[in-house]
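seq as requested:
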Amino acid sequence: MKEIKNKLNDLSPNLKNDKKDSKNQSTVKDYLQRLFPNTSSTKYFPDTRLQQQASGLEELVGGHWINTPFGDIFRSEFVWDLNEMYGNYKLSTIYSIEKSAFSHVFNTPLLPSWESLIFLDTETTGLIGGTGTVAFMVGIGFIKNRYFHVHQYFISHLSHEEGMLELVRSLMDSYHTVVTYNGKIYDIPLLNTRFVMNHLPPLDEDMPHGDLLHPSRNLWKFSQENCKLITLEREKLGFEREEDIPGELIPGIYFEYMRLNRIDMLTKVFIHNRWDIITLLALLIRVIESYGQLHAEENPLDDYAKGRLFKNRQEYERSIAHYRHVLSSNITPQRRQKTLLELGALLKKLGYLEDALAAWTEACDILYLFSYEGYVERAIYYEHREKNLEKALSVVKEALARIPSYRQAEIESLCYRQNRLQRKIEAKSNHDRHFSS
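struct tokens:
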């Protein structure tokens, strides 16, 4: 019997190894299957039509259910006629704006058309973000046939998230540029986190992105209490929402919907998100128009902001023009002095030294607080530009007479400058006497 067993082993010596390799391959295959599941197979049995109707969303919000391999996704659909007024703006104005203006504001490639923009805003289960925060609603807007379409993708169960993400991706992939409000910091990173958590590739990082938060802050941060979307909507667009819900209540409303199936408050979340999306288009028009506006703003603080904005963008002539608008307005002494100093620095940078001197001289007027920068720049100008040491010394002495006593470091610097100028004046005087004799 033993001989027969040995002969069988000789005939198939690799049998044990084959079984071991087969087991290893099976383990690896199972691991890969868990990491990258087959998305083509149905994972979730769809809700019955009775269950969908019982939710009430179709009737109250307008839209329909979409069955995906990962569960039923509700898509609300809303259409806004661009010829209708939205606050003080008619959204069809977008067609009268050069597409290059968008690229100028956001530093993005040239748009193929205004229809190539996609507007995005999310409603989430938390306000801070992080891997545990889920976007339960993704609102998307786009222009088509002179109408603004708003599609809102909503999940009634968190387990359906992957289906919604696939629908959002398929729509976004067909557009050129995305427009958000604080989307670079919040919405897009959040969605990309959720894509990765669901074993899906993130959104295309090369997709151009126009985040309206940054130009809005650059334009209006000095004149507005804050730059929240709803604030700018009211103050800059003239649109006032009725019975809107605060954004910080939205996560709690969603959890209450899942727990108690309360749809009354959830309907307000759809409306809130819908206004957010439409406001993105209206605010885009407002921002682009403000960037192109050369004449004085109604609020001089907006001109001051534009002076700083265009200086940072190295559009210096635009910056000077807006600074001068500020100086021509009724502005507070503190803001006027600050404007004079910033304008003086810019004029000096561009070589307009006489104009810069005029700005610094006015900034040192006794009507304003002491300005160390203004006095020092004047002293430098007289010493090195006009070679007038006596005038430079006079400016330094005036500065020492006005400077507050607690600014010791600057007092020491002025004293050093004063002593140096006095030595130069004495040396020049001795030199002149020597040659005159």
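The domain at 49-292 is CATH 3.30.420.10 (Nucleotidyltransferase; domain 5).
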